[in-house]
Amino acid sequence: MSTLLWRDMLIIGTALNVVATFAALMLVARGTHSALVAAVHFAPLPYNVFLCTAIWRSPGRPTQAALLSALWLAVMTLV
Hints:
Elements lengths: L1 H28 L4 H8 L3 H12 L6 H16 L1
Helix pairs in contact: 1-2, 1-3, 1-4, 3-4
């Protein structure tokens, strides 16, 4: 559980979202069509939902982990 939360979600997932957001910002700066920019920005969303769902479905998960994963999913969707 701690590996899924700390390594997979908070480190790898956050890094993936930062890279996707940076790529989307580079595309905006180049004047790329907004649909492509949105697709690049939201590309990690299925992975984010998968991670959050995996934590919520884990047996014996702490309540704090579930709340942290939901908060992380909301922040990563907006950022």
